[in-house]
Amino acid sequence: MFKLQKKRYYEFRISDMISFHLVIRSCRPNTILVFGVLAGFLLYLVVLDSLGLDPVRRATNDLIYNAHSQEHNLVNDTGSSEIKFGRPAFGRNYLVIFNVIPKTGSRSVNVAVNRHILHSTEKLHFHIIPDDALSNMSKFEDFIEKIPRPAYISGHAMFPDFEKIHPEVIYVNIIRDPVSRVISNYYFDIFGDDMDAAPHAGNTWPVNIEDCLKLTKDPCLDAIKYYQGVTLRQFCGMNERCRNVDRWTLRRAKQNALKYSLIGVTSEMDTTMKALEIILPDLLGGVYADFVQTQNAVRNSTITKNKRKPSAETIQLLREQMKLQYEFYDFIQVYFQDLKRRYRL
Ligand SMILES: *[C@@H]1O[C@H](CO)[C@@H](O)[C@H](O)[C@H]1NC(C)=O
Ligand SMILES: *[C@@H]1O[C@H](CO)[C@@H](O)[C@H](O)[C@H]1NC(C)=O
Ligand SMILES: *[C@@H]1O[C@H](CO)[C@@H](O)[C@H](O)[C@H]1NC(C)=O
User: Fold this and answer.
1) Rounded CA gap, 17 and 79, in Å?
2) The pLDDT value given to residue 114
3) How many Å lie between the centroid of ligand 1 and the Cα of residue 83?
4) Which ligand has its closest atom nearest to the C-alpha of 294?
């Protein structure tokens, strides 16, 4: 987005130069002085912009955001008091929490963020959330107390609700088409990928998800049931009730989703990364370029091995079992597509 916007600035300036030139030829010295001052001011803005400090850009982003939220009556069946989705967070002193849903492309994001950190002179602490904190709120709190800010932490955690006690927390996440995610998770747990070849749970399962779905009782079926619920459970949070996936869980997941600054989608990774820059301009500005540099290598080594294309019937069957998941996916899509329009991504 910044790239696009800068480009627009340039186009704007080049056409302006031409009209400046025409006007200057036909005007008196004090008019030239006025233009000189204007040109100086433009230069000042360009310099500020290159330092990431452009007040106009900030004000514009905020204006676009506010105008848009008012003009579009976004879905609000959640009782949530403040929607953070798509709202830029300026400054650097944040704790970014990325509670990764498995098989959604998170490694592409984390590799890009790490490259960003490597090439940055300002510190951003990257941490993996420890296993024992993933679903234990008090351990999670202990963990984040110890980390200096700014920080970016990542792991398969249940949503940790710090809305009231840690205003510096920024939530980000990525979701994927529910059936594709389940299928990917199944084959990943059997075969892994180049980056993660450790033996996974699935070494005794049918190597074809269709054969598993024909069984009536098998560990592979339990695994599929688990994958089907994982997204809603993670967005629902640490509450005991979140372990059962029902309408209550869905409702809580939607409420929490609006506390995220960004939930991207796997099928639009490129846009997701551009959006990440926009919502954290001072902390992660430029991370899209890091993503472009690293994405092919990451994608090559994180393609789940031996993944088979399932039949239309299998897709239909899984889809019918995952109505709540699709309701959530569609809910997020509304916000994500809206964010894209708002920032012209
Ligand atoms: C959503 O609805 C609730 C309850 O009607 C209301 O209190 C809240 O302000 C609304 N939130 C937004 C962002 O409009
Ligand atoms: C979470 O961890 C604390 C110790 O930090 C422990 O006392 C508590 O029982 C744990 N809670 C759950 C639900 O496991
Ligand atoms: C990724 O794989 C493609 C196709 O196999 C190959 O053309 C490309 O060079 C690979 N890229 C990297 C960075 O490994």
Assistant:
1) 51
2) 97
3) 9
4) 3
Ligand 3: distance of its center to the CA of 297 in Å?
7
pLDDT digits (tens, 9 = 90+) for 167-216: 999 999 999 999 999 999 999 888 888 777 665 777 889 989 999 999 99
Choose one of 108, 193, 293, 296 to mutate for the ligand 3 pocket test, by most ligand atoms within 8 angstroms of C-beta.
296
Q: Which of 176, 170, 164 is nearest to 150 (CA)?
A: 170
Long-range contacts of 131-134 (CB under 8 A, 24+ apart): 131/155, 133/157, 134/158
Per-residue confidence (pLDDT) for residue 35, from 0 to 100: 74
Question: Which band of pLDDT confidence, cut at 50, 70 and 90, is reported for residue 54?
Answer: low
Distance (Å) from CA 66 to ligand 1 centroid: 15
**In the prediction, which pLDDT does 308 show?**
79
User: Cβ neighbours of residue 121 under 8 Å, at least 6 residues apart?
Assistant: none
pLDDT, tens digit, 9 for 90 and up, residues 260-284? 999 999 999 999 999 999 999 999 9
- State the ligand closest to the CA atom of 78: 1
- Per-residue pLDDT at 71 exceeds 80: no
pLDDT digits (tens, 9 = 90+) for 90-107: 999 999 999 999 999 999
296 Cα–ligand 3 center, Å: 6
Q: Give me the helix-helix angle, 219-236 and 312-321, nearest 10°.
A: 50
pLDDT(28) > 90: no
